[in-house]
Amino acid sequence: MVRLSNVTHAFGGETVIENLSLSVDPGEVVAIIGPSGVGKTTILRIIALFLEPNSGSVTLGGQGVWSLSEDERLRLRRRIGMVFQEASLFDATVERNVEYGLRVRESWRDRLRDELWSVVGSNGTPESVTEALDLVGLSDKLHQEARSLSGGEAQRVSFARALAYEPDYLLLDEPTSDLDPRNTDLIEDAVLEARDRDIGVGIATHDMHQAERIADRVAVILGGGIAEFGPAKQVFENPADERTAKFVSGELVY
Amino acid sequence: MNVPLEPVAQLLPAVVDFPFREGYVRSIIYVSLYVSVVAVTLSTLFSLPIAIVMGFSDFRGKQFVKSIINTGMGFPSVVVGLVVLFAVSNQGPLGSLELIFTKEAMIMSQFVLATPPIMAITLAAITGVSENVRDAAHVLGGTRLDVALVVIKEARYGIATAVLAGFGRAISEVGSVLIVGGNIVSSDGISSTRTLTTAIQLEARQGQYDTAMVLGAVLVTIVLMVNAIVVRLGDEGAMR
After folding, report:
1. B7 falls within a domain
2. Quick check: A201 and A191 in contact, CB under 8 A?
3. Do residues A224 and A208 make contact, with C-beta atoms less than 8 angstroms apart?
4. Which ipTM score applies to this complex?
5. Res. B13: pLDDT tops 80
6. Does residue A153 fall inside a structural domain?
7. Contact A143/A95 with Cβ under 8 angstroms?
8. Is residue B4 part of a domain?
9. Which among A213, B22, B97, B226 would be 20 to 30 A from B44, CA to CA?
């Protein structure tokens, strides 16, 4: 389980999140919903061990992350994958993009050998790369240059890239905000498939219907802190918090 | 109609080497290329890590360092030559190495001249790499070195442009190599520190305009080829 306890973080003197506690278990989808600018991205970055919070603790499998050495933290960091709102693909083929996570986990000797092989041809595509691309329906684009993909395809490749090295946790930052309904469906199906593989998924979204469709638990972030955190059904149908009730019913508009 | 090529082919070396001893022009081209290539290679190895560190970090005085690098691009080459000459002269700090009027001294001054454009263009290319791409390399499990390698790969067209721009400056430079190299040809007529530029300057001054023109044509061809590659790389980079 990855857990944030009483986490506070500020940017340039302005507190973005305050005293926030949240957890993601393996095999569940936790949606982090809230209006734009409440710090959903910051929360995901903290869970991804990408950003050290100003105060509070972050644990992965019970281990405090930020008290560890950089090498030990790298080991934990490598159990997590993250997909940004923008696809952020490298200027290379789809295959090179998706296998990146696998490559950085190899020894330098193997990596050098792979680089040399890639000059003369290919030494085979790792199975998990084709599997991950299959999952997002893009296995036919393996050898295409990433920059020639459409926005939706690029985002799906970005998802496959985070999945290819089989992380225990996967964090998605508004992965479908710029996508058409078809690509959105494909990403949502892939999220549920990842959950079935016992991956813990954290997804930040401003789309409440999306959260309702795929989340097991929902954290509602309003004004820096968690207004409500619980099973999706309860949050949407019978919220305990008054502001949450207004937010999910669409009355509370920021 | 068949045109016999043999007589023309036989004439070519005579034209190029006329009225010099055999190998003179070739040795000049060799010295020019050797000095510029070594200086640009060393400068790239020096500039790349600095540009990466500067591109990745924010520190006080960063703008100041940047403006020094940019000023360096317009630095007068004769002044650089003069400073290097002082450094390698017998009384200078590097006097004991006896580098005066050698290719090594020329490499030193070319290094100083090529570094500002190489560093400035490399830095611009590296800072142009999207932060999202850097973050992606990090969250996918990359170490700091992995992230740096990704950035270099993403900026490859800009870096290649930087290297070629530095080479363009070095190969066409005349003032500083004349001062520190001395434009020397050994007794067997083979260039020791004479480059295309300093040879052209000498031939023109002696009234040997035809030979100066031949050497000029060779230099222009080299520079044009390099510039064509720079433009091509710039186009390819822009397409991405």
Report:
1. no
2. yes
3. no
4. 0.89
5. no
6. no
7. yes
8. no
9. B97
Site from A88, A115, A147, A155 to mutate, B interface, most B CB atoms within 10 angstroms: A88
Total domains present in chain B: 1
Residue A239 distance to chain B (closest CA, Å) = 34
Provide the CATH number for the domain around residue B125.
1.10.3720.10
Question: For the domain that residue A241 is a member of, what is the CATH number?
Answer: 3.40.50.300
- For residue B162, what are the contacts with CB-CB under 8 A and spacing of at least 6? B44, B47, B117, B118, B119, B120, B121, B122, B125
- Do residue B136 and residue A101 have CB atoms under 8 angstroms apart? no
Range of the domain at B228: 17-239
* Rounded Cα–Cα distance for residues B167 and B173 (Å): 10
**Quick one: closest CA in B to A108, which residue?**
B146
Which token pair is B58? 């924010």
Is 0.80 topped by the overall pTM?
A: yes
> How many CB contacts within 8 angstroms connect chain A with chain B?
55
Token pair for B176: 């500083």
Q: How far apart are CA A248 and CA A208, in angstroms?
A: 7
Which is nearest to A161 in space by CA: A175, A179, A178?
A175
Question: Is B1 within a domain?
Answer: no
Stated as kind and residue range, the H or E segment containing A219 is: strand A217-222
Contact B83, B93 (CB under 8 A): no
Chain A residues in contact with B141 (beta carbon < 8 A) = 74, 77-78, 101, 104-105, 165
Q: Tell me if A139 is assigned to some domain.
A: no
Q: Give the domain range for residue A64.
A: 1-71+203-254
Sequence-separated (6 or more) residues with CB below 8 Å from residue A217: A28, A29, A30, A31, A229, A230, A231, A232
Please state, in angstroms and rounded to a whole number, the distance separating the CA atoms of residues B84 and B106. Answer: 9
Three-state secondary structure call for residue A171: strand
* Dist. CA B130–CA B172, nearest whole Å: 34
CA dist A181 → A31, A158, A184, A185, A213 (Å)? 19, 18, 5, 6, 14
Instruction: Answer whether A78 sits within 8 Å of B240, measured CB to CB.
Output: no
- Answer for the pair A105, A165: CB distance below 8 angstroms, yes or no: yes
Q: Does B237 touch chain A (CB under 8 A)?
A: no
Q: Is B140 an 8 Å CB contact of chain A?
A: yes
